[in-house]
Specification:
The complex is a heterodimer of chains A (493) and B (272).
Chain A: H1 3-9, H2 20-33, E1 41-44, E2 48-51, H3 63-76, E3 84-85, H4 89-98, E4 106-107, H5 113-117, H6 129-137, H7 143-146, H8 151-158, H9 160-170, E5 186-196, H10 199-220, E6 222-233, E7 238-249, H11 252-261, E8 272-284, H12 297-315, E9 320-325, H13 331-334, E10 335-339, E11 350-351, E12 355-356, H14 374-380, H15 385-391, E13 400-411, E14 421-424, E15 427-440, E16 457-464, E17 469-475, E18 485-491
Parallel strand pairs in A: 3-4
Antiparallel strand pairs in A: 1-2, 5-8, 6-7, 6-8, 9-10, 11-12, 13-14, 13-18, 14-15, 15-16, 16-17, 17-18
Chain B: H1 3-9, H2 17-32, E1 39-40, H3 45-50, E2 56-57, E3 61-65, H4 70-73, H5 75-86, E4 93-97, H6 104-109, E5 117-121, H7 125-136, E6 143-148, H8 153-166, E7 169-174, H9 179-185, E8 194-204, E9 213-223, E10 229-234, E11 243-244, H10 255-268
Parallel strand pairs in B: 3-7, 3-8, 4-5, 4-6, 6-7
Antiparallel strand pairs in B: 1-2, 8-9, 9-10, 10-11
Classes of the chains: A alpha+beta (493), B alpha/beta (272).
Chain lengths: 493, 272
């Protein structure tokens, strides 16, 4: 019925534009909240939520008690609902939509689906409207009437769908339920008689949850690598603290501290009624004495891992890095900040006809960096500077390297010479002395090369009148057209 | 023996008053000494003499400033710290900084093996300070370095306390984002034990075209229990040592050579 007609029938009708995206989001949120009953929950099309409660109902005192608890909480949230519990997903779907009424859940014991579904209309089988229409036209109006029909005739006329739905509803064919998220490996839950919101109370609850979890991990000889702590609020929202650890851990103090440190990201709203701590990733962790205090290397490594956990969980693991040497001429590739704990890649694709060549610069032993301090040695042993220069194998490199290089306005007298002055960050520098050039070109033997004029860089080490030393480079050839551009790539100490 | 014990039992061993006074002073110095975690000498008599305990106190906070445009980049300060870290054991170093612009080969030239560094990137100063404090609570670390713009007195004090407790040395590299921040923070007192300023100095001529031997002007601006001083040194070499400028760098040379160097440094010494 068009809206205009509806309004003419009932002038006071309240209307609101449909917002399917927001509906779906709030349904997903509600499904997540239902995680308090079972770890396996998922939204079902646009108006339902499926919960796999196998093995969970006894925690609530039976299926009826569980349904009653769910109904009470939904009513409190002012959500109209119909609840059904059945041995198969298809039967529960049908009963919830066509048999249950608001306030009294329909509960069918396993094996009685056939009887329960028989009086229901054929829509109960999750069929598409066209099939439903066709079935009704030939007089099959209820599931009970459809059941005795020969299967092959049904399949010939209406396709496989009808028979499959029948089998699924009666449990003759399994129907896997994919949960909302990943299913946790270990899970502990804590419910409160009264909702709590005080950070101190939440911290104490975290302590208890962790204390519940740790003995289970210890018994199995595993440590948690990735955890999720869900705060189920009274208004049906769920807030999460997710964290990962650098080494498998089951140290209650450490895990509690990690969660408590992130507690300020949680908005408890009007209160939290359930907290669920789930472990998604574990690694073997042999029994050990974790609390030993001493100077042993194990204790130091443990300290270090716990520090990295705290830092990583506060800033994200991307914020932690270490400097890695790579075999490359290009300065920004010779020393890179690699994520901590990342596996060093060792795959190097084979280029036909050229044997194995590294596509990206390979990490190497920092020993190669141990540059010859020829100049320093020369100063001590009265060597001539020329000898020292010959001995110094590697040209000097700056302490700070800007990525990307920062453009400067430079002016020069002779195209091949270093600039006589440059302006960088709106500050003018007069070049007093300069060394160079050192030409660094694209690595032509790698695959990802862009052979442009800019690929050739001439580096100069210049010192300004104040004594600051910069690493400038000219991108492109000196006498090229358009004129080459200048950049500051780094600053020397 | 504690001070109260001393008062109760009198001076031990019937020492003569001047000797016992000296012993008492010694004891008080030990109690008061911020550096019960040891000292790291620079290996350069001129600098070590200006520091109480003849070296940089470990398990304490040291503040290092840049000068001019380098206040934003902190390149000379980073090189100076790298030189100190090179001589400070072989343990891991936590370096907290707003963006990862340290270059490994450059640090290595000042003696610091970049493989020892663990970098933590965070945008805000309070986050960096938090990371530093966490690091200072980890005794396995050799040192913690933080590139901090705004350092409130309380935050500095917290770092100092954490460093004293664990024995991990902290270096606060002051790195200001703009002129206004530099102006507001430059003269502000802090809880650090020492405050240094390291500025790049025109390189020393070696009768060759181009850049000669790079130098720093190292100033000790503030030092608890010591007087301010300034030196012109050649930048930290691949062993992390700085050496006095003007060709007197040969550390194995006779004491006479050192003496000349000291005199020169003395002439640069600023009035306290």
């Amino acid at each position: 019925m068009p809206l205009a007609d509806a309004l003419s029938f009932l002038p006071g009708l309240a209307t609101a534009p449909a917002d399917p995206a927001a509906d779906a989001a709030s349904l997903a949120r509600l499904a997540e909240w239902c995680g308090r009953y079972s770890p396996w929950t998922a939204p079902d099309s646009v108006d339902g939520i499926k919960i796999e409660i196998t093995g969970c109902a006894h925690l609530w005192g039976g299926e009826a008690a569980l349904a009653a608890d769910l109904a009470r909480r939904l009513t409190r949230q002012k959500i109209a609902h119909r609840i059904a519990i059945a041995g198969t997903l298809g039967a529960a779907w049908a009963l919830a939509r066509l048999a249950a009424v608001n306030g009294s859940p329909a509960i069918v014991a396993t094996g009685e689906e056939r009887m329960a579904l028989a009086p229901l209309p054929v829509e109960a089988l999750r069929l598409d409207p066209v099939t439903v229409h066709d079935l009704r036209r030939i007089g099959l109006k209820t599931v009970g009437e459809l059941c005795p029909m020969p299967r092959d005739a049904l399949a010939r006329r209406f396709g496989e769908g009808v028979a499959r739905r029948l089998d699924q509803a009666f449990g003759d064919m399994p129907e896997p339920l994919s949960p909302l998220g990943e299913a946790p490996l270990r899970r502990v839950r804590l419910s409160f008689a009264e909702p709590i919101a005080d950070p101190a109370d939440l911290a104490r609850a975290i302590e208890r949850l962790v204390a519940d979890l740790v003995p289970r991990l210890a018994r199995e000889g595993i440590g948690a690598r990735r955890l999720d702590l869900g705060f189920h609020r009274v208004d049906g929202r769920v807030e999460h603290i997710r964290l990962g650890t650098a080494r498998p851990s089951r140290d209650p103090r450490h895990l509690t501290a990690l969660f408590v440190a992130k507690l300020d990201t949680i908005d408890p709203g009007l209160g939290v009624e359930d907290m669920i701590l789930a472990v998604f990733e574990v690694d073997p962790l042999p029994p050990e004495q974790l609390d030993c205090v001493g100077d042993s290397p194990e204790a130091a490594a443990h300290d270090m891992a716990s520090l990295l956990d705290r830092l990583g969980n506060r800033f994200g693991l991307d914020a932690l890095s270490h400097i890695e040497a790579r075999e490359s001429h290009i300065p920004e590739k010779a020393s890179i900040c690699a994520r901590l704990g990342e596996k060093r890649s060792s795959k190097s694709p084979v280029i036909p006809g050229r044997g194995r060549k590294p596509a990206s610069p390979e990490p190497m032993n920092t020993g190669l960096w141990k540059m010859d301090s020829g100049l320093a040695a020369a100063r001590r042993s009265e060597m001539t500077i020329k000898q020292a220069a010959n001995k110094a194998l590697k040209p000097p490199r700056p302490v700070r390297l800007f990525q990307p290089p920062e453009p400067v306005e430079a002016s020069w007298l002779v195209p091949d010479n270093p600039p006589i002055q440059f302006t960088w960050r709106r500050r003018w520098h007069r070049v007093a002395r300069a060394d160079g050039p050192e030409r660094i070109a694209e690595e032509w033997w790698t695959e990802d090369i862009a052979m442009t004029a800019d690929a050739i860089r001439d580096y100069y080490r210049v010192e300004d009148a104040e004594g600051r030393r910069f690493w400038l480079f000219r991108a492109g050839l000196a006498a090229s057209d358009p004129p080459p551009r200048w950049f500051v790539h780094g600053v020397f100490a | 023996m504690s001070f109260s014990n001393l008062m109760r039992h009198g001076f031990p061993g019937g020492m003569s008053p001047p000797a016992s006074l000296a012993a008492l002073r010694d004891r008080i110095r030990q109690i008061e000494a911020p550096a019960r975690h040891g000292m790291l000498p620079f290996g350069l008599a001129a600098i070590d003499r200006a520091l109480p305990g003849s070296g940089l106190a470990l398990g304490a906070v040291h503040e290092i400033l840049g000068q001019g445009g380098d206040e934003e980049d902190g390149a000379a300060a980073a090189g100076f710290i790298a030189g100190i870290l090179a001589r400070l054991g072989a343990g891991p170093v936590l370096w907290c900084l707003p963006r990862p612009d340290l270059h490994g080969p450059g640090l290595l030239a000042h003696g610091l093996d970049p493989a020892r560094l663990v970098l933590v990137c965070a945008k805000r100063d309070d986050e960096l300070l938090w990371a530093m404090e966490e690091g200072l609570r980890t005794p396995g670390l050799a040192a913690v370095v933080g590139e901090i713009g705004r350092l409130p007195m309380v935050a500095g004090r917290r770092l100092q306390l954490a460093a004293e407790r664990s024995g991990v040395t902290a270096f606060v590299l002051r790195r200001w984002r703009n002129g206004a921040e530099a102006l507001a923070e430059r003269e502000r007192p802090s809880a650090a034990l020492t405050r240094w300023r390291v500025a790049a100095l025109s390189s020393r001529d070696i009768n060759m075209p181009g850049i000669g031997l790079p130098r720093w002007r190292v100033e000790l601006l503030r030092c608890r229990g010591g007087a301010p001083a300034a030196w012109e040194v050649e930048v930290a070499d691949a062993t992390g040592h700085v050496s006095l400028s003007a060709g007197l760098a040969d550390r194995s040379a006779a004491p006479a050579g050192r003496k000349t160097g000291w005199v020169e440094a003395e002439s640069l010494r600023r009035a306290g």
